Amino acid sequence: MGFPNARITNSFSGAEYIGDTTARTGEWSAIQAITDTKFSVLTGNVTGLANTLLGSAITVPAGLTIFGNFSAIDLHSGSIIAYKK
To answer: Comparing C-alpha atoms, which of 28, 60, 63 is closest to residue 75?
Structure first.
């Protein structure tokens, strides 16, 4: 008996590495911090992490995965993998 594929078990449909400050829009269901990361914009159902002022943005530590529904991502610093819906 084989294992079901990842698309079925975790609802992910691919991923995108983001390591720059270019604003992006799309539909993501999880974000994994590859390095310590700060968000300028993080639009979705998880609030309070992002701030357009670098000093006021919360640092998401490397290795942490945030699950939710996200539609816009803009980094201050760091790198992430954003998992598509």
So the answer is: 60
Which H/E stretch holds residue 76? strand 65-77
Q: What is the pLDDT of residues 21-64, one digit of tens each?
A: 999 999 999 999 999 999 999 999 999 999 999 889 999 999 99
Element (H, E) at 66: strand 65-77
- Residue 28 CB: number of other CB atoms within 10 A? 27
What is the Cα–Cα distance from 24 to 16, expressed in whole angstroms?
11
The C-alpha atoms of residue 25 and residue 84 are separated, in whole angstroms, by: 11
Query: What is the spatial distance between Cα 32 and Cα 26, in angstroms, rounded to a whole number?
Result: 16
Domain boundaries, the chain: 15-84
The structure's pTM equals: 0.84
| CA 33 – CA 7 distance, rounded (Å) | 21
